[in-house]
Amino acid sequence: MRLYGITGWKNSGKTTLMERLVTEITGRGLTVSTVKHAHHSFDVDHPGKDSHRHRVAGASQVLLSSRNRWALMSELRGAEEPPLAELLARLDPVDLVLVEGYKRDRHPKVEAHRTATGQPLIAREDDTIRAVASDAAPEGLAVPVLPLDDTRAIAEFILAEVGL
After folding, report:
1. Which H helix or E strand runs over 145?
2. Cα dihedral 57, 71, 108, 29 in deg (nearest 10)
3. How far is CA 59 from CA 54, 63, 89, in A?
4. Bridge partners of residue 119, in order along the sequence
5. Which CATH number goes with the domain that contains 93?
6. Would you state the pLDDT for residue 130?
7. Is there a domain that residue 71 lies in?
8. What does the pLDDT read at residue 40?
9. What's the pTM value of the predicted model, to 2 decimals?
């Protein structure tokens, strides 16, 4: 599987860009999966539902299935968060995995950047960033700058990078 990341500071447009890229790339007939890193606690389950009750009772894993989808939830119960490589090994094969977050991991990335955040460009210090997708035209970068709203150009850049 080919892997490419979208990174950036909070409110830089990462999730919106990911959504647009998935639509653009799958629209070209390629298969895409995504991995999203959350820095906070999250829950995909709801208190009172059977699957939630199973987890609260102490189940290590709960698999919930219907005719439309299935989800496997694994409780860490104090164990270390698995590294990205271990999580990727659990995915079904696809043409491309887009990863949101994981800014410290060493896979290639596009940095989403909005000037309104006031945050510095990560690309100035991180050689895993191969391009910046920005709403401005930052100067002095060693990587290409793409318009943040030009999904097609960003998708073409990523697909060329991974050889698709």
Report:
1. strand 145-147
2. 180
3. 6, 10, 22
4. none
5. 3.40.50.300
6. 98
7. no
8. 66
9. 0.91
As averages over each run of 10 residues, the pLDDT of the chain (164 residues) reads 96 96 98 88 80 90 91 91 95 97 95 96 97 95 97 98 98
What letter represents residue 107's amino acid? H
Q: Per the structure block, which two tokens stand in for 74?
A: 């694994």
What pLDDT, on the 0 to 100 scale, is given for residue 12?
Answer: 96
**Alpha carbon 119 to chain centroid, angstroms:** 20
Q: Please state, in angstroms and rounded to a whole number, the distance separating the CA atoms of residues 107 and 143.
A: 15
Q: Is there a domain that residue 122 lies in? A: yes
List the domain range (segments joined by +) for residue 85.
2-43+80-162
Phi-psi category of residue 125: left, alpha or beta, with phi > 0 → left and psi -120 to 50 → alpha: alpha
For residues 158 and 136, the answer to whether their CB atoms sit within 8 Å is no
**Total residue length of the chain:** 164
The count of domains in the chain is 1
